[in-house]
Amino acid sequence: MKRLPTSLVLLVAAAAYLAASLLVDNAYHQLIFTLVLVWASFGLAWNMLSGYTGLVSFGHAAFFGLGAYACVLGQIHLGLSPWAMIPLAGAIGAVAGLLVGLPTFRLRGHYFALAMLAYPLALLYVFEWLGLQEVTFPMQREHPVRYMQFADPRMYTVVAMAMLLVFVQLTRYVERTRFGMALLAIKQNEAAAEAAGIDTLRWKLRAIAASGAIAGMTGAFYAVVLLVVTPVSVFGMLVSAQALTVAMFGGVGAVWGPIIGAAILVPLGEILHAELGAAYPGIQGVILGIAIVAVILAAPEGVYWKARDWLRARREARGGAAAAPLAAAPSAAADAALAQRAGALAAGGATARPAASGEIILDVQSVSRSFGGLKAVQDVSFQVRKGMILGIIGPNGAGKTTLFNLLNGFLKPDAGKVLLHGADMAGKKPHVLCEAGVGRTFQIMRPFMRLTVAQNVKVGAYVKARSEEEAEALAADAIARVGLADSAGKVAAVLTTRELRLMELARAVAGQPELLLLDETLAGLGHGEVDDVIAAIRGLSAAGITIVIIEHTMQAMVRLVDEFLVLDHGAVLAAGEPQAITRDRRVVEAYLGKKWSAKHA
Amino acid sequence: MTELQIHLEAFLQALAAGVLVGGIYGLMCVGLAMIFGIMRVINFAQGDFMMLGMYVTYFLFVLVGAHVAAGSPMGAYLSILLMVPVMFAVGYLVHLGLISRVTGRRGAALEGEGHYAQLILTLGIALILQNGGMMLFGPQLMSLRTPLSSSAWEIGPLWGDFVSVFVNKGRGIAALISLAAIAALGVLVNRSRLGKSLRASADNPVAASYMGIDVNRAYRIAFALGTCITALAGGLLATNYPFHPFVGLEFVIIMYAGVVLGGIGSITGAFWGGMAIGLVQQLSALVLPTQLQNAAIFVFFLLIVTLRPQGLFGRSAERT
Q1: Shared-domain flag, residues A244 and A110
Q2: Domain-embedded: residue A467
Q3: Beta-carbon separation of A296 and B121 below 8 A
Q4: Domain for residue B216, yes or no?
Q5: Over residues A376-398, mean pLDDT
Q6: Are A521 and A508 within one domain?
Q7: Measured at the alpha carbon of residue A529, what is the angle toward residues A525 and A535, in degrees to the nearest 5?
Q8: What is the tally of structural domains in chain A?
Q9: Are A40 and A189 contained in the same domain?
Q10: Contact B295/A125, CB-based, under 8 Å?
Q11: Residue A159's pLDDT band (cuts 50, 70, 90)
Q12: Closest CA to B225 of B192, B189, B272
């Protein structure tokens, strides 16, 4: 079956919805048709920030309310029509988003969510204090259409649909491009995203600006539909909750989620209110609450995701045979990849590495960092020459990972310099260092679980790629270089430890680093697997990448590195060639204790 | 009275009001901290459980008043005492039937560690409680009148014949009971075996379960305790604050602000967070118009949270 282009399906669905709304002549039912679209738009606004970045906002009413008040005050004081004020409200919402985002993005998780709650509530009381308890649009009998005061309520549905279509297309554009990938990477793992060269703050600000703009425009239109604006109706907690509810009910992080949520919950709530609200006040809320609770217990991830997973499972169960030819194509590619991997292994085995030159890439000068009283890294200096593999070893707690965090920008040194090609990078952000050519992997692996290997690696490629195609090409190349081409289509959640390590390696390689920092890349691997990963690292080194690798076991490292740097209690204990280091008395003491060293002296 | 004396009296009066209100806010926040701090669940229905606690207290008060302690101020406090176990049971059952399905191990498998599902589930519960309350109890304002609500202790005069502070007896007793309840909870959490299992489950649920702690049970007890402590604060508040089915909405935000101010995960912090909110609310009345009193709370909250993201008592721990 050929799939129709989504835009076409969307237009047909929109036309059908409008046709249905034209058939309704009851004004209240007409209003419901419009409100579904309004709350779907508002849900999309929320989803743009919270759905994709995972930073849940309880305060989207702030943008909504500012838009609503801008619209009504603009008409009263400046004589501007809503046709002009709705786009302007979008600009106001975007600016408000930036102003809110700048301080609030310093917070994470629940703190972010709850801090967002404070903005609309503070605004609510300020608008009450300003005496704007109830502001009504002045009637424009001369030019009703010019002021969006339609005699036929169906016109509002048409305008709302046009706005929703714009927001849907905007969301779909974000989903497809590096914008959406960056947001997803932030959602899954902010530190990894930052280390993969994503300027997380900038992308989050873009997301909240877009989100605020949509919310502001929606609020402005909502004000026009209701004709009256009160602080509670646009800044109230229930308004923020509405965005959350339609999006979470429908499914977070998908363009269709908020639309499904609004299409179900808004008519349900309104009809219950109209039918039962007068007779038994409160019963509509109880039934709506029970419906929400029941659906969430059955589909905690939201209606859209539940339905999608169910359809997928059914298709797989039914079309097992039909899917087979599809699987054949990737397997040919897999064969090619296997051959390539064998080649990479052979290359690694032969250690066809170019001789290290004398050029110093990284010059670390007396770097120190303490946490409270603990001196995690003290006065560490060393140099990394182009093309070498430097091994940093030391017992647990020696300060190895802290040192890496200082080198790639997660931590700022208390003292000392980190010179990259002579320029001091100490205290620069991780994504800046990534752009400058420092890639890194993590001791605790940080894969983006819901993305495939290819997508995971593509996130790392954006830092150097200018287009989507280039990013894909760089990613494919990096995946082949670590020998993971046969797993490129797998979702990260199903990978083995070996594959995850290689994928992390590929993600760092995709950013075309000059210097690669590997944090215990061999940890948790079995014997054969260690050889695979070492071969991959050798291959990268052969291709000219300079490597610094942390390990706490020496065995595997002796075969790999050109030089060792031994850390103990945060300070450099020894440095030099592997053979010399393994015989160094102080190193043996640090690892095995004084007694052992005395006995074997 | 000189101008200075007038200002001083107004300040001391606002300070006293802040401490008394803050004591009750602190208790509410401690109840929420049990849930939010230990289980990391954002419970939007917390304010509505408090509302339920107020109504349960009210009906017990009517019963007790008719049979046991007619006319005595003890009736209100006796009914508050009886309400607490009722609300413990309510919390226990809500967790058993609903919350546990999207938290703990079942929640961990969901998108965003189940936070989305938890949020909307508790929003649904809040809707049911508010509107159910509307159906059962009606929209009118209720209050729990005790003879103490309308009498006050006078402290002073402190400066010559002037500068007296009046402490409403109802509020004073409520603040004292709050302190006692928090002290009792502190002993329970810090000294008892149950408290240890709660703290272990909060700190690292996986490790706790390896140590043989029934983490789900610990969460259930934490939820039930959190519910009944906030309800206790509600019962105390009801002696001098009129309430209605949607009263929870007014306080749930104050509770979260207090918990975040104190630092998520810290129970003592939550109390001081609530106290800080009470003080800001009452003291801001000296310089701001009344409409902006609540705006001041949120501005203060935003300032603290941006300047000190881990809260006043929280620890910041982030690992790469």
Answers
A1: yes
A2: yes
A3: yes
A4: yes
A5: 87
A6: no
A7: 120
A8: 3
A9: yes
A10: yes
A11: very high
A12: B189
User: For residue A520, what are the contacts with CB-CB under 8 A and spacing of at least 6?
Assistant: A443, A550, A551, A552
Chain A interface includes B109 (CB < 8 A): no
Residue B72 lies in a domain: yes
Residue B316 reports pLDDT greater than 50: no
Mean pLDDT confidence for A285-304? 84
Q: Within this chain, do residues A508 and A520 fall inside the same structural domain, yes or no? A: no
Q: Are residues A269 and A380 in the same domain?
A: no
Residue A361 domain boundaries? 354-437+516-601
Candidates A507, A448, A505; CA nearest to A187 is A448
Is residue A27 situated within a structural domain?
no
A289 touches chain B (CB under 8 A): yes
Q: Which tens digits make up the pLDDT trace of B209-238?
A: 888 888 888 889 999 999 999 999 999 999
Could you report the per-residue pLDDT of A189-205, keeping only the tens digit for each? 788 888 888 899 999 99
CA distance A356 to chain B (A): 31
CATH code for the domain in which residue A94 is found: 1.10.3470
How many helices and strands (H and E) does chain B possess? 12, 2
What span, in angstroms and rounded, lies between the C-alpha atoms of A507 and A457?
4
Chain B hits for A289, Cβ within 8 Å: 124-128, 131
Q: Which residues of B touch A281 (CB under 8 A)?
A: 134-135, 139
Residue of A nearest to B98 (CA): A297
- What is this model's ipTM? 0.85
| Residue B7 belongs to a domain | no
Helices and strands: H and E segment counts in chain A: 26, 12
For position A353, what pLDDT does the model report?
A: 64
- The answer to whether A115 contacts chain B (CB < 8 Å) is yes
Helix (H) or strand (E) holding A567: strand A563-568
Mean pLDDT of all residues in chain A?
A: 84
Residues of A in contact with B139 (CB under 8 A): 281
pLDDT at B319: 37
pLDDT tens-place string over residues A204-243: 999 999 999 999 999 999 999 999 999 989 998 888 888 9
Q: How far is CA A281 from the centre of its chain?
A: 43
Q: What integer pLDDT is reported at residue A123 of this predicted model?
A: 92
Which residues have CB under 8 Å from A26's CB, separation 6+?
Answer: none
Query: Which residues in chain A have Cβ-Cβ distances shorter than 8 Å to B36?
Result: 110
Least confident of A49-53, A473-477, B118-122: B118-122
In this structure, the strands spanning A389-393 and A374-385 are: unpaired
The single-letter code of the amino acid at B80 is I
Distance CA B136, CA B56 (A): 12
Q: Give the end of a domain, one of A491, A512, A533.
A: A512
A421 and A406 in a single domain? The answer is yes
- Contact between A83 and A235 under an 8 Å Cβ cutoff? The reply is no
pLDDT class of A601 with cuts at 50, 70, 90: low
Alpha-carbon span A166 to A71, nearest angstrom: 19
A310: CB partners within 8 A, 6+ apart: none
CB contact under 8 A, A284 and B127: no
pLDDT digits (tens, 9 = 90+) for B162-213: 778 888 888 888 899 999 999 999 899 888 888 888 888 887 877 888 888 8
Domain contains A3: no
Same domain, A547 and A455: no
Give me the number of domains chain B comprises.
Answer: 1
Is the pLDDT reported for residue B256 higher than 70? yes
Assess whether A49 and A68 both reside in one domain. yes
Cβ neighbors of B257 (< 8 A, separation 6 or more) are: A114, A118, B273, B277, B297, B298, B301
Q: Are B315 and B203 in contact (CB under 8 A)?
A: no
At residue A467, the 3 state secondary structure works out as: coil
What's the pTM value of the predicted model, to 2 decimals?
Answer: 0.81
Whether A330 is covered by a domain: the verdict is no
